[in-house]
Amino acid sequence: MSSALRDGSKVKVVDVWASNEEELSLLRACAHDFPIAAVATSLDLPAPTRTLDSAYVAVRATVDRIQSAQVGLTLFNRDGELALGGRIWRFHLGDGHDDANPYRVCEAFRACSRAMVPDGIWVTRDGAADVAYMVKHLNGGTLPPKREAFLHLCNVFFPDLYDLQVLAEWREVEDGDPPLARNASFG
Asked: Using N-to-C axis directions, what is the helix angle for 102-110 and 127-138, rounded to 10°?
């Protein structure tokens, strides 16, 4: 599948299954030149709850029930150019015969984190679900029972993380510009 970008170049969606996990080495090779990773999952979350702790319990329960998932990832540089001329990876993860291994894929994602790429940034459209799924696999297949421990692991694995859903709703929660607007160093 491909479509055109503004400059006329093509975006290429590459489906990654067990049979072509060699795409993970391409991902790792691009991480230093394309330090911004945008990720989205196919997970459906329950409706928001009243407290952060109960919201984490709901996210954790949802992620723990997942047998398979699709995770989309693309890498950008600070000029907005996509890696490999417009490559977007769509990982088909799970325990099935044809599914890519979630742990190996999440380990490759970690190659894009600040631990490996000092100026690396992660952007997600729904951080709770997207990040919880990855943290689960990077943490040996389990999520911590407490939200505080989960947040600690998020900071370890993905220290520079921006959740677009939270940023879009920022003005409703707190008066003023969202953190990304105050700290942006793009361009």
From this structure: 110
- Residues with Cβ within 8 Å of 46's Cβ and at least 6 positions away in sequence, in order, are 58, 62
- Positions of E strands within 42-158: 68-76, 87-94, 121-124
| Mean pLDDT value across residues 116-133 | 81
Mean pLDDT in residue range 131-151: 90
Strand order in the sheet with 2-4: 2-4, 10-16, 87-94, 68-76, 36-41, 121-124, 161-163
**Cβ 72 vs Cβ 82: under 8 Å:** no
pLDDT of residue 93 exceeding 50, the answer is yes
Q: What is the pLDDT of residue 187?
A: 38
Question: In the structure, what pLDDT confidence band is assigned to residue 100 with cuts at 50, 70 and 90?
Answer: very high
Closest CA to 131 of 175, 163, 101: 163
**Nearest CA among 85, 95, 80, 130 for reference residue 109:** 130
The residue behind tokens 């990832």 is 73
**Separation of alpha carbons 109 and 179, rounded Å:** 24
